[in-house]
Amino acid sequence: MKTGVFAVKEDDLEALAYCYAATFNAPPWNDEWTSDTACQRLRELYDTPGFCGLAYWEDGRAVSALLGAGESYFDGKVFRITELWTDSAYRSKGFAKALVLALEQRLCEDGYKRIYLITLKDPSTLGFYELSGFSGSADMCVLEKDIKGDN
What pTM was computed for the model? Predict the structure, then answer.
């Protein structure tokens, strides 16, 4: 049974999708993921150019994961964390922190300049990222707009 941080492989996607759906269907997100929609989301991320994913496994069970991709920018390579989650039963045990530290080490070795992400404005999410060394940008913000199509 594997335990610890491992690079995400294609064979891991189904187990990660189960953990992903369980996590994001709970507070504070309260989403409505199914196993199929979660697996589709993770497959799309996995197939993104520059993909890098790390997962924390505890006794053969996926309990936390970090997925994202590298991007080229004018001053070098940057990495966007697209998804980072930990199963609610395993929170506050350092698994997500271990993933962030492993990612930082890997990215430093590969010459990356910066990591960025977008997250929910919730004390639990913001607090984690701030404790992990992330800070808000004075120059950037996230805006959104709902659109209604004739689907």
Answer: 0.85
DSSP string over 56-85: EEETTEEEEEEEEEEEEETTEEEEEEEEEE
Q: Residue 140 corresponds to which tokens in the numbers above? A: 């950037």
Q: Give the range of the structural domain holding residue 90, as residue numbers without chain letter.
A: 4-131
The number of folded domains in the chain is 1
What's the CA gap between 132 and 128, in Å, rounded? Answer: 6
Q: How far apart are CA 57 and CA 46, in angstroms?
A: 18
Residue 137 is assigned to a structural domain of this protein: no
* Domain annotation covers residue 104: yes
Domain of 94, CATH number, reads: 3.40.630.30
**pLDDT tens-digit readout, 59-79:** 999 999 999 999 999 989 999
C-alpha dist (Å) from residue 62 to 26, 122, 124, 133, 139: 17, 24, 21, 25, 36
Evaluate whether 77 touches 71 at the Cβ level (below 8 Å): yes
